[in-house]
Amino acid sequence: MKTLVAPDRLLDQGLARLRTRFSIPDGFPAEVSSAAERAAAKRPDRHADRTALPFMTLDPASSTDLDQAFAIETSGADKLLHYAIADVAWFVEDGDPLDQEAWRRGTTTYLPDGKASLYPPALSEGAASLLPDVDRPAIVLTVRIDPGGESRLDGVERALIRSRAKLAYETVRDDDLPDGFLEIFRRIERAEDRRGAQRVDPPEQVVEKDDTGGFFLGFRPQLPSERRNAALSLAANLAVAQAMLEAGTGLFRVMALPDAKAEERLRASALALKLSWPPAMPLAQFQRRLDPRKAADAAFMLAIRRSGSGAGYRPYDPGASETADLPWHAAVAAPYAHATAPLRRLADRYVLRSVLALAQGEPVPEAVLDAFPELPRVMARAASRDGQVDRSVIDLAEATILHGREGATFRAVVTDIRESKAQVQLKDLPVIATVSAPQAFPGCPVTLRLLRADPLEGALSFELVD
């Protein structure tokens, strides 16, 4: 991590410009805020009482928009994961101001100095959030996980729950977690290994605000507690996808495998990074050996992520079973859905409504069926915006940290080649840059000279030093 020195509050000014450039909303229209206040006052009257179950949450310490809470039971050799998801659909009516605004936004957009939430704080950080020590309406997915790690929906219901504790990724200890939590994680990992899942969790390049109001730039590897908690969401989302497939409906998260040409490039990158990848070993098996704390391994993990075509959404296609073109997500090597973050993703609200109806033996609401073909476009637009915002924030921070050092030289290593451009990682700063380097190859050490660092534009320019 590197603390940013921002003369004349350049970073704050840059973030303000980014909000304008990408039309990031500042607050909500009055009619949307009013609708949220009215919705927050609703009292659940269609929810079973499950407040006796010992639910708890596990999130970043600063989070207040809590989508998920969990409770775990043992059923013979199986584990039962009671996964409570914020019942956003209880508060939001089809076509109301909250719904219309959510369709405009698509997702919650995060910046270092705040976020533009999908729903107003009265809901996202209040009445709909699964905060501790208060009763909250939820959609509870009961997921049965067998000894082999296969998950299946046992039931879905609307229920009133009460979280007993708000655990934090940064401080949670194993003895804070309920019995069965770590066992579920181990089972899910074993199932991933059998499927040949290709999930990649490289360190993130991040800009975050510290306790003093300043910013820092760095790489943040995923914490063990995050990986373990993600296994619960994975199990639930796999079970939801299977239930929708069996019913012949739904919205799925899809991603293609890297093609043969992409894998060929990855093998060249592994060789350049001095990673030992046996010729007969599948990529999925090799990547599970990688350690994100090692620079070469982390660089290769980023290369794997960039090698694919990216993830998207796809509604159920009735003709897919005949063509064997089932919705498939290469990273998890299975049909997959997004259902566990409805406070932050628009699509999850509709997926949850569909499996709730299926579990209750009711037809999926027409509004949900009508939404499925439209959501891929809306979610793709939101993902594109969020990706551009993330990259622009990093560019801004990198330019700020190097401002005033024009003419200085820096040691770096090449992490990727695209045409005649090399992507490089500076060795002594958490900065990734692009430079013209026709003869470079992944893993190659290089020396760069900084030509320009413009915090106003978030622009960096380097040249290769012979």
Automatic annotation (TrEMBL):
Organism name: Novosphingobium pentaromativorans
A GO biological process held by the record: mRNA catabolic process
Protein name as it appears in the record: RNB domain-containing ribonuclease
GO MF assignments: 3'-5'-RNA exonuclease activity; RNA binding
RNB domain location: 47-361
InterPro entries membership: NA-bd_OB-fold, RNase_II/R, RNase_II_C_S1, RNR_Ribonuclease
Listed GO CC annotations: P-body
Domain of life where this protein originates: Bacteria
Cross-referenced Pfam families: RNase_II_C_S1, RNB
